[in-house]
Amino acid sequence: MSLNTKDEGGGIAPQNKGSWSSFLKSIATFNGDLNSMTAPPFILSSQSLVEFSAYWTEHPSVFVAPALEPDPAKRMLLVLKWWCSTLKQQYSSRSEQYGNEKKPLNPFLGEIFLGKWEDEAGTTQLVSEQVSHHPPVTAYCIWNDKHGVRLQGYNGQKASFSRTIHVKQIGHSLLHIDRYNEDYLFTLPAIHIEGLIYGNPFVELSKATYIQSSSGYCAKIDYSGKGWMSGKKNSFHATVYPEGHERDTLYELSGQWTTGFTIKEHKTKKEIDSWYAKEHKTTPLILAPLSEQDPMESRKAWHAVGQAIEKGNMDLTSQEKSKIENQQRELRKKEQAEGRQWERRFFSRVEHDPVLESLEKKMGERQEPEKTGGVWRWDADKVRMRSQQQQQQQ
Prior knowledge:
This protein is α+β, with helices and mostly antiparallel strands. Helix content is 27%, strand content 33%. It is built from 9 helices and 17 strands. Strands 3, 4, 5, 6, 7, 8, 9, 10, 11, 12, 13, 14 and 15 form a 13-stranded antiparallel beta sheet that branches. Strands 1-2 form a two-stranded parallel ribbon. A two-stranded antiparallel ribbon has the order 16-17. Strand 14 (260-265) and strand 15 (271-276) form a beta hairpin. The radius of gyration is 22 Å and the shape is globular. 36% of the residues are buried.
């Protein structure tokens, strides 16, 4: 990416173009993880990265649909459909909301985000927690008791620059369906940021991700963004096949993850289903009122920062953001002096996870726990004990 162009920063307000140019030049010469860099306040989102876990389940009925399908191959297809339906919300909804991609706020250690969805699928609950700050890692658990479906996982991000910003997502997701005692392991897509030079950054996905099930079926999703000469933006092609027989495709999905896709039987080429985002409204996430939220909950903790960003007051944004960062530094110093570590509220680090180890062996991909501070899992016993203690205090 050349930094010398008259169109540089075309999507940035005139008063911020100088800062944008300086920012581009600094990332082009920076060595190391770009997440450690301080971004100009005017490209900050008022949303913390810990909230991004909610994008997994903004269509709860699609999330639980696999639990209602008795055929294992069709169940894998419904799991794949759900996964592909989440991509728009995860990777492009912010561009549509703000006009371009904004840099989310970096969560502080212990930051939490709690919510639930209510619709025809029943109640689907979300818990997201920042379990590590160095390296930054967010863990989450999303579950629907009515249908016996649970998703948990964690991810960190490592950003680098080569012509544009590349983000490697480190971590995975695990989906469990009680009715069939079945598990699915998901790898996460590689991200790169397009449109930087024009000041209109947006996310594009690349390479491939995989879904490995314990039922004997797999899925592969190939992402191909728009090339210089041809191709459509945000394109992908996905297949379902029996484990160990990738060429024996049963079903295939193709389209654009930002708009929609079709589902066909591979053998007959007959279209059997489709998904178009504009036809499916997202289910609103229900949060506790700000006055009732825990001080560690994201919306409450970042409230003053978010207000300053939305008002466009960049000086106040920097001041309020510095307050939180300085508080966190003091907490870490105190913990170090007392010889203790921050106690995670909902998740714990585990040495071994038999389900993960079995599925990643089948998939042939290792999850690199050394890059995420370990393997993080929902700790039901810890949550139960905390709940009992709270009830006793009341």
